[in-house]
Amino acid sequence: MEEQDSSAIAVIGMSGRFPGARNLDEFWRNLRDGTEAVQRFSEQELAASGVDPALVLDPSYVRAGSVLEDVDRFDAAFFGISPREAELMDPQHRIFMECAWEALENAGYDPTAYEGSIGVYAGANMSSYLTSNLHEHPAMMRWPGWFQTLIGNDKDYLATHVSYRLNLRGPSISVQTACSTSLVAVHLACMSLLDRECDMALAGGITVRIPHRAGYVYAEGGIFSPDGHCRAFDAKANGTIMGNGCGVVLLKPLDRALSDGDPVRAVILGSATNNDGARKIGFTAPSEVGQAQAIMEALALAGVEARSIQYIETHGTGTLLGDAIEIAALRRVFGRDASARRSCAIGSVKTGIGHLESAAGIAGFIKTVLALEHRQLPPSLNFESPNPSIDFASSPFYVNTSLKDWNTGSTPRRAGVSSFGIGGTNAHVVLEEAPAAKLPAAAPARSAELFVVSAKSAAALDAAAERLRDHLQAHQGLSLGDVAFSLATTRSPMEHRLAMAAPSREALREGLDAAARGQTPPGAVRGRCSPGNVPKVVFVFPGQGSQWVGMGRQLLAEEPVFHAALSACDRAIQAEAGWSLLAELAADEGSSQLERIDVVQPVLFALAVAFAALWRSWGVAPDVVIGHSMGEVAAAHVAGALSLEDAVAIICRRSRLLRRISGQGEMAVTELSLAEAEAALRGYEDRVSVAVSNSPRSTVLSGEPAAIGEVLSSLNAKGVFCRRVKVDVASHSPQVDPLREDLLAALGGLRPRAAAVPMRSTVTGAMVAGPELGANYWMNNLRQPVRFAEVVQAQLQGGHGLFVEMSPHPILTTSVEEMRRAVQRAGAAVGSLRRGQDERPAMLEALGALWAQGYPVPWGRLFPAGGRRVPLPNYPWQRERYWIEAPAKSAAGDRRGVRAGGHPLLGEMQTLSTQTSTRLWETTLDLGRLPWLGDHRVQGAVVFPGAAYLEMAISSGAEALGDGPLQITDVVLAEALAFAGDAAVSCSRARRTWRWRFRRGPRPWAMAHCRSPTWSSPRPWPSRATRRCWSRW
Fold first, then answer.
1. What is the residue extent of each domain of the chain?
2. pTM higher than 0.70, yes or no?
3. Are 64 and 241 contacting, i.e. CB atoms less than 8 angstroms apart?
4. PKS/mFAS DH domain location, by residue (predicted)?
5. Is 428 an active-site residue?
6. 629 is an active site residue
7. Is 628 assigned a catalytic role?
8. Catalytic one among 355, 563, 637, 732?
9. Catalytic site includes residue 179
């Protein structure tokens, strides 16, 4: 294959559910091991499926089938589908929808974020769920419900349904060519991609028959096998067995896939379709000429010779005539070259899983892609001796009956896939193994990575953590950096979120293991965010108290942006104060000068500036900044209102002046409100001041040490929490007044400017324009109380929910959280580092907390060097049962805990022989089979919804009176109907038997009665609700 061939199409994603295989890993295992997935059914299983017992006893009835598990279950909530809509939807639509999502996931694409065009080409069988189950319920086929039933079941809506639910905006085409449907869909998708109608395309097909666990009647001379085995190309071939399954692939032009770094799984070199026309025995008969022409055209379009094909995945239905015609068609294409004997293996996936009709072609296609990937040819089953009508000896073909390595030397592995439909539509695809990709560099090894997982529900989130844990255990060679990169950049961010910073594979495994059990391990954060709501961010710059020896060293060594910001501050501080910031950060306990106010304040200022730079480089930008005391200097610089030189001048010159009063004052934090603190200071007003109001339960005092000590002793005696702050200067108190003139003179040359980022002042409580940040402002900043609580409250009420503290240890996050709870706003307050903890993991955990609250982190910023997209586990569907049984099974179905009757709440209508004007419905409501009723809770109890009574009234009125508008009046809910137990209640404790009575007359009325299964009183059924309704035309 030429790398520049613009007609080649890459297979970049796949998904499927096949008999005996819930996913493609299990499908390949079954193929590799030669597992025949046909099941044999007992009389009890067939009876449970509604098969007539007399039919089961018929000698021609074959009790076998290839089935899927849990076809009645679906994750409706994931796709935003209501329970009622889900149970009216054909399982073919449901399963195909899930597989389409998985195929996109498998390729590393998030359809919710992809801005390009993705097409859908898909086909399904006629809905037997509609014909076997829904159609027998008259109420469901009436307006307006019939239209919803139609679009949820008709195969014509399969493709567009997927496009709608996944927000895919490319061509959306439903395909139907009988057995060749899904391979024709692949061909049409390729044509659409080559015509540039879309960037990528989903293609596939599905077949699900209802009743599902049922056999079939064998007829001599028919196409069905008498014993439930498919023996393709064998002398004993006597028919096929129909099966159920679904397969979806994601396709993209090869050149684009390679340039975009997509995971190319195989390459489609060419494909073709045609029709037999009328020159054959009959409409349903195959045509040797038609098949051969389709294969030759596909090879011609692929630009390869037939002799280069080493494997053919045949249509291979296991009928004597059909198999012989297929090999004859292949010989027309490949010729009779004696030297090419046994050069091309053939096989049929139908021997293992049956004939999947609309999904038959995609099953063979996926099987062949998997074989190319694994470089192995799986066995074709049930072959012992060749069909006597086939002369394999003089052909290039042989049936591959065992697992064998697919060795080709220097020749690329190349295969063909055929699928032929009743009616004569033939399809053939030429596949080749993926080219040796020029993989992007692996994500560089770092001291820690952030791993993000999300889901649509809390239970799914736990399951996703469990799947990821097991996946990493099974794939030890995956780089942690690539896993983190792939989780962040290829998965859709959903409502329930888990973010985990981990330095090693073992730490990640332990964390995921805990998360799988619903816990939040160290280094992890859980959150829940509202879709579409982007929270606003506040950068918070604190004052003193967060310092510790060794802070910032790890980030300085690992993060270039952090290093650059500190280096700039170092140059400015050296020019202003004559000492080295970087040297101070490198100092140990014995040589550190952090106890000096004129050192610690510039150091904390520089770190705050560097934290802000690093956060911004990671894509977290402030919507507003606020500073606390000396923190306002860094806030003003980050907002753009002060140059670095002016900001350094303020912090250095002011802190030097503060040394004059160093040791003369103290500050203390108390668990008091502002009013309580003022009351506690009565009698001390000339010696102690309220310096800071941090939150409703946190106030800082400042003043003379002796007086501070007395106040704290009094508070301790009263059981009030209080402690001294690690400062020896009483800022925000009269003790700083003597510094006024010298400070104003020292800062007279400042050149403040307009702020580029909004800043709210904790001196005035107002927004800062910028030019007012001259010398007078910074004197007031030192002298006046800090109005932190007021400012935080204003930001919370203005819609700012995320607060990020720019400090080496959080000292204000608790106060912000108290304010957030006080005003009842969603959000979070996070720090940057934590004293004594490894720095990158700490900051990553904080970043994860922001993401967990819904902040849209631009992950490319965290991975500037990129990474490889590696395989990850698919979404853990939280499937529930959504099913409406056929009326014939209603009685047995009710005993088994499945839905009975036509209407899910009413059941079937009956007419009383003694009261001909009265209609009666009786059914049993059970949380086990109507789990969505459990979502309606009042004070924790499951209560039958009031809206459900109205639904029953409307439906009973419509069924009793006929179509037309209904008006409901005089609604009376006599008492609430509660289901016993909790969310995990057993079916036996959560059942209520209903009777719903409707009487005709001048004023029609309806009444509902309910009793529990243990009701034994001779008294009439208790009334739960009454209402009157009538029809108006």
1. 13-252+265-433, 443-531+854-885, 536-660+733-833, 666-727, 908-973
2. yes
3. yes
4. 903-1033
5. no
6. yes
7. no
8. 355
9. yes
